[in-house]
Amino acid sequence: MSALKLKKGLSKHSAYDLKDPHAQAEERHTLSVLVANEAGVLARVIGLFSGRGYNIESLTVAETDHEGHLSRITIVTTGTPEVIEQIKAQLGRIVPVYEVHDLTVEGMAVERELALFKVAGTGNNRIEALRLAEIFRANVVDSTLESFVFEITGTPQKVDAFAELMRPLGLNEMARTGVAALSRGAE
């Protein structure tokens, strides 16, 4: 086959297109896992993901019930529907796991993330960074003559959008907490 035919995309078989046409698309899911607050639980959960080659996009964990010794692990991951079901089933089999909820399929959920951005700049870039921070409702938590540290809370998409706008204005560093999420409603 000539290079011209390949260039025009007339080839039906290409080594660069080895994707399975019947494969399901990957989906992003937020899982909320209630676990016993004891040593080694987080390592077991992470081991489940790494041992099977599953990716974790975001991971947060904190104690939520001091008296009951419970912690909530919020995991954002991607996979086909079958992979997500496998992850949930395998998480449920870990002994100190009490509940596994897929907030993506169980209904409406609230997702938030906290991020800190260090933006260095002078002159118009400094003024523009302050103007954008006001639009995004970001707080200035540190200021010097050469830089600002902004604190922003919102959806991961809002944090991403703020980062993209700050890059050309002198974004030096960023720290993100990862997603914290809860289902909406009384239950």
Automatic annotation (TrEMBL):
EC number(s) recorded for this UniProt protein: 2.2.1.6
Q: Name one Pfam family in it.
A: ACT_AHAS_ss
The pathway to which it is assigned is: Amino-acid biosynthesis; L-valine biosynthesis; L-valine from pyruvate: step 1/4; Amino-acid biosynthesis; L-isoleucine biosynthesis; L-isoleucine from 2-oxobutanoate: step 1/4
Which top-rank group of organisms is this from?
Bacteria
What region holds the ACT domain? Answer: 30-105
The yes or no answer to whether the keyword Cell wall biogenesis/degradation is present is no
**Catalytic activity from the UniProt record:** 2 pyruvate + H(+) = (2S)-2-acetolactate + CO2
- From the record, give the transmembrane residue ranges: none
UniProt GO MF annotations: acetolactate synthase activity
UniProt cross-references to InterPro entries, sorted A to Z:
Acetalactate_synth_ssu (IPR004789), Acetolactate_synth/TF_NikR_C (IPR027271), Acetolactate_synth_ssu_C (IPR019455), ACT-like_dom_sf (IPR045865), ACT_dom (IPR002912), AHAS_ACT (IPR039557), AHAS_small-like_ACT (IPR054480)
For this UniProt record, give its keywords in alphabetical order, as a comma-separated list: Amino-acid biosynthesis, Branched-chain amino acid biosynthesis, Transferase
- Enzyme type, top EC level: transferase
Which family, according to UniProt?
Belongs to the acetolactate synthase small subunit family.
User: What NCBIfam families is this protein classified in?
Assistant: acolac_sm (TIGR00119), PRK11895.1 (NF008864)
Record's subunit section: Dimer of large and small chains.
Q: What does this protein do?
A: Catalyzes the conversion of 2 pyruvate molecules into acetolactate in the first common step of the biosynthetic pathway of the branched-amino acids such as leucine, isoleucine, and valine.
Q: What is this protein called?
A: Acetolactate synthase small subunit
Q: Which organism is it from?
A: Psychromarinibacter halotolerans
Instruction: State the taxonomy lineage.
Output: Bacteria, Pseudomonadati, Pseudomonadota, Alphaproteobacteria, Rhodobacterales
